[in-house]
Write a structure and sequence with these properties.
The chain has 62 residues and is mostly helical. The chain has a domain at 25-62. It has 2 helices and no strands. Belongs to the short-chain dehydrogenases/reductases (SDR) family.
Amino acid sequence: MNVKDETDVKCALEETTNKFGRIDVVINNDGITHFSTIEEMNDASTREEFDVNIFLSIECYS
């Protein structure tokens, strides 16, 4: 499963719900980081970090 692909995430959640009936606990066990100085950071890498580390968790909970 590609955690950056919203369709993959929704499909995995649906398969899990279909198999077990419900999801009681969600643990965010993935995350990425780009090691760089503030001067080296760019919008694309920062957005990717937020998409995976923050918004993925929100998507799974909603």
